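Hey L., structure's done. Input below.
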Amino acid sequence: MSALLSISGLVAGYGKKTVVNGVDLDVHAGEIVTVLGHNGAGKTTLLRTVFGLIKARAGTVRFDGRAITGRLPSDNIADGVALVPQGHGIFRTLSVLQNLELGGFAITDRRIMAERIDLVFGLFPILKERQAQIGGTLSGGQQQMLAIGMALMSAPRLLILDEPSIGLAPVLVERVMDSIREINRSYGTTILLVEQNLKHGLAVAGRAVVLNRGLKVFDGAPAELADQGKLLSLF
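Output:
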């Protein structure tokens, strides 16, 4: 079975520093793949390069069989790839509803716009209750839900999430992770997730990948990382 997302020999970094150093990774349709690793392991750089925010120095990225290496993020969004960055990535001075409408900026049919907003409200009822509230006044967990909701407005086939649990209280992390499972289960959305929270990152994953100093050092079933000694050796 061909991969929906295929990364081969990817090299990327900043200035003279190489952060991702020859990573190969396939993500198949319908999977949840969690990428783990310590700070500086290359997790965020990998996602940003796949999405087109950073130019690859070497290697290729293919989506649905087509090369997208170095393509503009706007083209990736139009093709069904969405990224939720660290720090929520919402418009803090706009209302919840306005944020969602901006997430669906490419939608020209008002009926489709309304259907997508209803889908988001179905996943996150608190956002429906607070649709007139200014985004920056929401709690951290609600802002993360809104950021995910904005990404879903483009009906992505591949949803890329960078540290969705960062800065959230444990109970809110549980809610966000539950929503990720629901998006995958109900809509078949393929998810590539970066997490530092090992417990939650592994719990939601169908497959786990570990990066260490820009190299992929593990790719397999999350259960294989249950051995604390093995897990620590990879980090």
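Residues 170-187 form the longest helix (18 residues). The chain has nine helices and ten strands.

-- N.
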